[in-house]
Design brief:
Strand content: under 5%
Order of helices and strands: HHH
Helix content: over 70%
Largest sheet: none
Radius of gyration: 14 Å
Number of domains: 1
Number of strands: 0
Length: 64
């Protein structure tokens, strides 16, 4: 229903590991010290995907 770019899809797949291992909820010291490897480009694409999903799904929900 909401088209995402290849970069947004890759960022979501990358973040899945962090979500699955609960790193977002309970940051591991090693990850925090390393600054979450790959974070800067991934976080931009995650924010982009989230923005797109919220905006486009909001419109679909209003139309329902």
């Amino acid at each position: 229903m909401v088209p995402l770019t290849a970069e947004e899809r890759a960022a979501i797949a990358f973040a899945q590991r962090y979500y699955h291992e609960k790193i977002f909820e309970y940051p591991a010291i090693a990850e925090a010290v390393q600054g979450y490897p790959g974070d800067p480009p991934t976080s931009n694409f995650l924010i982009s995907a989230a923005d797109r999903l919220v905006i486009e799904l909001k419109q679909l929900c209003k139309q329902a």
